[in-house]
Design goal:
The complex is a heterodimer. Chain A contains 10 helices and 10 strands. Chain A is an alpha/beta fold. Chain A has one domain: Rossmann fold (3-Layer(aba) Sandwich), CATH 3.40.50. In chain A, the strands form 2 sheets. Chain A has a 6-stranded mixed sheet with strand order 6-7-8-3-9-10, sandwiched between helices. In chain A, α7 links the parallel β7 and β8. In chain A, α3 packs parallel to α6 and α4 crosses α6. Chain B is mostly helical. Chain B has one domain: MetI-like fold (Orthogonal Bundle). Chain B contains 11 helices and 2 strands; from the N terminus they run ααββααααααααα. A two-stranded antiparallel sheet of chain B has the order 1-2. Classes of the chains: A alpha/beta, B mainly alpha. At the A-B interface, α2, α3 and α6 of A face α7 and α8 of B.
């Protein structure tokens, strides 16, 4: 399987505190890679390093390489990087004072990627891919805040897809949601892997087992083990991985 | 009675005093104003003659009302963009150390007594305004009515600009507070779709905080409407028809500067004191409306 993202010797510090230690990881293309581990293990920090969100935090320092199709994203324009590598956050927060339509269209508008006529098509396509179109097609001009939290999360997925990224990063995308919405998002993620390379950070091991093809287990800022999901859960090679997946550490 | 009850009663009493005071002040203001309204009728509010000479008494507060509106308007027009720039710089651009010290300095501006602003305005600032703003505008655009009067530096523009400086601390600090409440998720969301800092400010921060920012502006307006000392030192203190704001460069008067200038020489047997109290009543009403509006918006926003 082809590697889409390769992380090489990645280290991240906040002020003087190191939170990621020498991480190396090859994320395969058009597959779902889950990153699991106890809270505070650095999995979100790792994810955010993949689309340079740490650039925005003055206290954060990143060292190492993140290669997208062989090119180091830390040597490119961060705005272009973030367009190619989309991010869906834990808590869905629609943009303020914008309709459903505008929430999806805004990224395309900001980056001047399309004319007005095409914008409508892009919005519809993105909402369809995010499995939200049928629910909102008649209320596109309503404020996005009128949607339920589950719908809002699919909306933020749609607004990320509107930019036609190559990679989707998801930071615990279902942890703020009810079980029904969670199931919908999980189905959606599985459907999306035909077109995208997906990295999902989750604290829910069963979720990782349900949806991912590969799983990386992180502990105290290091990647302890990376393997095909079924293999990692059935035959963990490291003792600490086994302890975690059997619930003996959390 | 145990100590808890004593303390309860004590604090209740103290708290009631403030309400009582406001009510009493309102009652007294109305009581004092009634005679002049009886004499002048509604003309008191809509005419411009001002003659405290006994036997020829005439009182109309329209010019001072307009003067208050005009100077406050200038203050908001000039002060708000500056405050807004300060708040945006501090929340979105500056580093933590710079932010800390700049915030303290700006808040210190609020600690300067207004008479100091007035002194500085009278001896320094007005000459600057005169030479670098008013004279050039008058020379080049003197045909336009708002620039037509011969500039002296003691006029509506000076009053408004002094106020603009004086509202910067409150407007910028409240704006800063509301901008800091913008959820990180919104900012990061915009960065994550390839937005830059400008996009984050325009589509995230400002949209999210627009009510709070409006509240900040109204709080500044409230400060400008009520401010007395500094304004009365630079506005030129015209009265009667002359105080009507015909040009930015003509000497004027606000409700508060009128009161400050004349209360001391008002003949207690004439209607002059009543006319001044009436100006105070109108001023208080304006201040209450603006402040309540601001508070309503800000508190609704903070929830």
């Amino acid at each position: 399987m082809k590697t889409k993202i390769e992380i090489r010797n990645l280290n991240v510090w906040f002020n003087k505190r190191q939170v990621i230690y020498d991480v190396n990881l090859k994320v395969p293309e058009q597959a779902i890679t889950a990153v699991i581990g106890p809270s505070g293990c650095g999995k979100s920090t790792l994810l955010r390093a993949i689309n340079r969100l740490h650039d925005l935090i003055p206290e954060a320092k990143v060292k190492g390489e993140v290669l997208l199709d062989g090119k180091d994203i830390y040597k490119e324009d961060p705005l272009v990087v973030r367009r190619k590598i989309g991010m869906v956050f834990q808590k869905p927060v629609p943009f303020p004072s914008m309709s459903i339509f505008e929430n999806v269209a805004i990224g395309v508008k900001l980056n001047d990627l399309a004319k007005k006529e095409r914008l409508e098509k892009i919005v519809e396509r993105s909402l369809r891919m995010a499995a939200l179109w049928e629910e909102v097609k008649d209320i596109l001009e309503s404020p996005a805040t009128s949607l339920s939290v589950g719908q809002q999360q699919r909306l933020t997925i749609a607004r990320t897809l509107a930019l036609e990224p190559e990679v989707l990063l998801m930071d615990e995308p279902t942890s703020a949601l009810d079980p029904v919405s969670m199931k919908k998002i999980e189905e959606l993620i599985v459907n999306l892997k035909n077109d995208y390379t997906i990295v999902v950070v989750t604290h829910d091991m069963r979720q990782a087992a349900r949806i991912s093809d590969f799983t990386a287990f992180m502990y105290e800022g290091k990647i302890i083990e990376f393997n095909e999901t079924s293999e990692l859960f059935r035959n963990p090679k490291e003792e600490i991985t086994e302890k975690y997946i059997t619930g003996r550490i959390s | 009675m145990n100590e808890d009850e004593v303390f309860y009663l004590f604090s209740l009493a103290v708290a009631s005093i403030s309400l009582l005071l406001l009510a009493l002040i309102l009652v007294v203001l109305v009581q004092y104003t009634l005679p002049v309204i009886k004499e002048m009728g509604f003309d008191y509010f809509i005419t411009s003659s001002w003659n405290p000479v006994f036997g020829k008494e005439k009182y109309g507060i329209l010019p001072y009302f307009l003067g208050t509106v005009l100077t406050s308007f200038i203050a908001v027009l000039v002060g708000v963009p500056i405050s807004f720039g300060i708040a945006l710089f501090l929340t979105e651009y500056s580093n933590k150390t710079l932010k800390k010290y700049l915030s303290i300095m700006i808040d210190l501006l609020a600690a300067i007594p207004s008479v100091i602003y007035g002194l500085w305005g009278f001896f320094v600032f007005r000459n600057f305004i005169l030479d670098y703003i008013e004279k050039p505008l008058h020379n080049y655009f003197g045909k336009i009515s708002i620039f037509s009067a011969t500039p002296t530096g003691l006029d509506f523009l000076s009053g408004g600009l002094i106020l603009a400086i004086m509202i910067i601390p409150i407007v910028s600090s409240v704006t800063r507070e509301v901008l800091e409440l913008v959820p990180t998720e919104i900012k990061e969301g915009i960065y994550a779709i390839g937005g830059n800092r400008y996009d984050v400010i325009v589509y995230g921060s400002i949209r999210y905080s627009k009510n709070g920012i409006l509240g900040a502006i109204l709080l500044g307006l409230g400060r400008a409407v009520g401010e007395t000392m500094a304004v009365s030192m630079v506005i030129g203190n015209a009265t009667g028809e002359n105080a009507l704001p015909r040009s930015l460069f003509s000497a004027g008067q606000t409700l508060s500067s009128l009161i400050a200038n004349e209360f001391n020489e008002a003949n207690p047997t004439s209607l002059h004191p009543n006319a001044l109290v009436g100006a105070g009543l109108v001023l208080l009403m304006m201040a209450i409306v603006v402040n309540l509006g601001a508070r309503a918006i800000v508190s609704k926003y903070k929830r």
